[in-house]
Amino acid sequence: MKNLLIVVIITFFSLNTASFAQEGGSLNSGTISSQFDYINSISNNYQEFKVIKKSNLDKLRKNVTDSLNVFKEEIANISIDLKQKQDQIAKMEAQIEEVQDQLQKAEEARDSFAFLGMPIHKSAYSSLMWTIVFGLLGAFLFFLYQYSQSHKVISKARKDLEETREEFDQHRKNTLERERKLKRELVDALNQKTI
After folding, report:
1. For helices 20-28 and 32-42, what crossing angle results, to 10°?
2. What are the boundaries of each domain within the chain?
3. Which of 29, 50, 155, 156 could be joined to 43 by an S-S link, Cβ 3.0–4.6 Å?
């Protein structure tokens, strides 16, 4: 088994000496996948196995480890950035909630005010004022109707009073004339008696 391993290593070194210049360049640049492809292409075959130089394997391990470390750092940076963004989102949500509360209070303040020392909503105040207006309008119409009715009664009473005065004046004139007639008759009767 040892002999076989030595044969494989010697074969490997002899075949790879010509491509040594390409190895360094290919393992020093490119993606991890292309480096694995490169290692696979330059490796020797031994039965079903691939024989890889230890220096190439170490270089590939170092490259993979470096890439993993870079990815870990990127993940850590992204995690920190994500945490910062989440904190900012939480702060903004709190600010939005605060602004919405302030907006609601402002709308309540806009829609209500103090009336006779009590806070009252504008729609309730409007309803109260319209109720008062309609109540006063109803009272005005009622008193207007009462006034027109009493005016009719007063007009009728004045007319009746006028008629009564005219009748009274007529009766008084008639009574005065009768009285004058009676006085004349009495004076004539007295004058005829004295003669």
Report:
1. 160
2. 2-84, 121-184
3. 50
Question: What is the pairing mode between strands 49-51 and 112-115?
Answer: unpaired
Whether 1 contacts 33, CB under 8 Å: no
Q: Would you give per-residue pLDDT tens digits along the chain (195 residues)?
A: 544 445 445 554 444 443 443 444 477 788 888 888 888 888 888 888 888 888 888 888 888 899 899 999 999 999 999 999 999 999 999 999 999 999 998 888 887 777 777 878 888 888 889 999 999 999 999 999 999 999 999 999 999 999 999 999 999 999 999 998 988 888 888 888 877
How many whole angstroms separate alpha carbon 107 and alpha carbon 141? Answer: 39
Q: How far is CA 164 from CA 36, 65, 150, in A?
A: 137, 132, 20
pTM for the full predicted model: 0.43
Residue 127 C-beta-side C-alpha neighbours within 13 Å: 5
